[in-house]
């Protein structure tokens, strides 16, 4: 049967599923569906190794999903670095935020409780950081070797539609300079943040308030090895994390129309030299300054796009084409791999014997929209809310930023809860809601008590503005997750 399907894919360009894009999600979905016996065609514009400055940190929840997909070994042989948590540096003061022990996703809760009853401590969760391109190429190796998957290097140019029902039947493409077409019962669009098909199916567009500018530092001594570093101060957040034995990625968030990055102030290089370098730990500065002179400056927009339900017969849009959040928390790949797991579950042949049953597929996509909320809504809301606090540009946000750092310093559940959410291993939106407003209340307390006795009454009144600002920050993102 595999040989017959392979001939069908190669000669007639027909399969059960056509996947547009062989990136993080496209590869994962192709393998997951191929493992279930589905016949899959993957269309990818270029099979050369990608060169990007984001998609380099996989949280523990993503590692768990990768293991479920049978792709855990893709983290080997790419010089990946183990990640045990974060080092948050706030105006020079540090707090370690380690991934929590004995905290598991909902699907592992029963095992975790059994371990606790036996008095057994489970291994602390680990993330991985790496060169994005090397990881993608390892995923592609798995796809290329899969007997149920055929990979075609070509550019998708349009969608094939039924003239009667407007159902999506496949993809038009250009392969080796010639027009072609590939047909499937289901077409999955996973063509990334700059998706050429997104605007055909939704009226809203991604919103970007800033860009990440990336540099690669060589042999830099980080304050806390095997940890991501978040540097906060009178500037938007700066991230540092090792991506290889000798390489460390620096990502500098630069909001739109920032005066210190204007042409008059020397542009982006001026901002890096005048604002970022003085804010870095002293031992990092020489490598960072060398990278400014050596590297070509590259950027990626930090976009937000709320998720929507797939309603088009014959089409599924996933990954960054359907849902994006600020990459501050490194949650994008974790969401993608989790989506691949969930998609394979809701479309399992025991539930959906034939993908030609478009009515049943659409019902299952409605189910997927809500099943993914446990993880995706937490990571989406957390990323956008944290960015608002970490890029604080007014007094209330600054108070919330300070409250967040001081909350981490309390330790215990004040670290385990938030970092468990960030790591993708606590998948309960209420836990996020609880910790966010605990931070807000703690920020109000600090705001009131750090003033002199004479100012306490005034500060008590003004602290209401801090709480109001917290509501303004988080509720729009909560509402965006509740829509269909």
Automatic annotation (TrEMBL):
| Function recorded in the entry | Catalyzes the stereospecific oxidation of squalene to (S)-2,3-epoxysqualene, and is considered to be a rate-limiting enzyme in steroid biosynthesis.
A Gene Ontology cellular component where this protein is annotated is: endoplasmic reticulum membrane
Record field: transmembrane? 374-392, 430-448, 460-479
Record field: catalytic activity: squalene + reduced [NADPH--hemoprotein reductase] + O2 = (S)-2,3-epoxysqualene + oxidized [NADPH--hemoprotein reductase] + H2O + H(+)
What biological processes does GO assign it?
ergosterol biosynthetic process
Q: Which protein is depicted?
A: Squalene monooxygenase
Subcellular location field: Endoplasmic reticulum membrane; Microsome membrane
GO molecular-function term, one example from the UniProt record: flavin adenine dinucleotide binding
